[in-house]
Structure formats: structure tokens, C-alpha cells
What does this fold into?
Amino acid sequence: MTANNIGKTVYHAAAAPATNNKAGFEALTWVLVKGAITLPQLGITHSMIDVPDLQSGLTSGIKGAAQGVDTTATFRTVSADAGQAALLLAGDAQSGVGSVKIVTGTGTLNAPVAGDVVNYAQGVVHSFQPNQADDSSYEGFQIGFRQNDFTVIDVEPS
Amino acid sequence: MKSPFKKDVAGKPSAPTAPVRVKITNKDGAIAQPYDNELAPWFAKGWTRVK
It folds into this structure.
């Protein structure tokens, strides 16, 4: 069954795991980032290597190097939210190394409970930009996340 | 003197202990808590135990 994305939440950890797997990610210290509007897209893009062939006249493609996608997440400002504070700190920090965990929690207030599907990714948090202020928009910000390893899809541990 | 009729009774093997989480930190001050049997890759990346 196809579902919408309502109820998804994002957590941030200010470090990359030692191993790109569930055990590594679950060892990190996660903080819920409130006020999410658009979550970062997770995934990988591959470069293609063109291989021309004179006889057939067909240029075929073989898979080249992979790299994580770099997308922008948007948030409305939630004052005194520890998750937003940590994310902004990472966005302005020199390294910005961090991880994200996206989950559709089935618990109270969408809290993740054991068995809920979880997406983990590590990368770099960057390019924090508060929304331009005017008389017809809400306070918020956008922030970039460049993924640096493959997404790990697993379930919330018990 | 040990009686020749007394059997040697081997001690019960201790039950394997469940792994426990250990608090570690990196140079940026981030905290992680991997299980004690999964510490090697963290130490290899410069994480150290929180004292």
C-alpha cells in the first residue's frame, strides 16, 4: 500500500558512525529535530562511463563511481528546540559531519517504537540559511545534507 | 590429603554475559554508546572512552 509521508520525523546525531550499519548508527546520540517541513532526500547517484563501439555504432554505459545526493531540508523555527540548535551548530561548523535518522514512528506523537522502519544516513550538514524575512512568511530555515555513504534501511531496535 | 574416592567436580561454566554499552567520545565532543564487543572500529577512528 502506498502511503503519504505525514508523520515522518527526523533525528540528527553530531557524528558519523564507525560502521555504516544499524549497530553503528544506533550507538550514536540522536536528537529529534522538531519543525520539519521537507526532509533531506537520501540516496546515491552513479556516474556513467560511456563505452563507444565503432562496429555497432552504439555507445553503451557502464556504472562509474557512486556519490551521495546533496539535498536541502526545510524547517519552521521551533524556539528552544535542542534538535534545531544542534543542527544549526552542525551547519555552521567547520566539518559538519553528522548523521540523520528518518522514521515514521507509530508511537505517541510519532515516537519510533521497536519494529518501525528507519532510514539512516551519514554525511555532512552544511549551508544553513534562515528564510528571508517578509510580511507574509513564517520563520524558518533551510539546511543542506550531503550524504557520504549508502543509506541503511532497517527497523527501530527494541 | 585428597580422597581417591572424591570426584573432581568441574566448576559450572559461567553464562555468557550480554554485551553492555560503553560511552565513548570523539575529538568534537560527540558521544556514542556502542556495545563493548563492537568498540574496535570506533577506536580505530579516534574515539576514546569517556572517563
About this structure: Chain B has a mean pLDDT of 86. Chain B touches chain A at residues 21, 26, 28, 30-35, 38, 41-42, 44-45, 47 (CB under 8 Å). The first helix of chain B runs from residue 40 to 44.
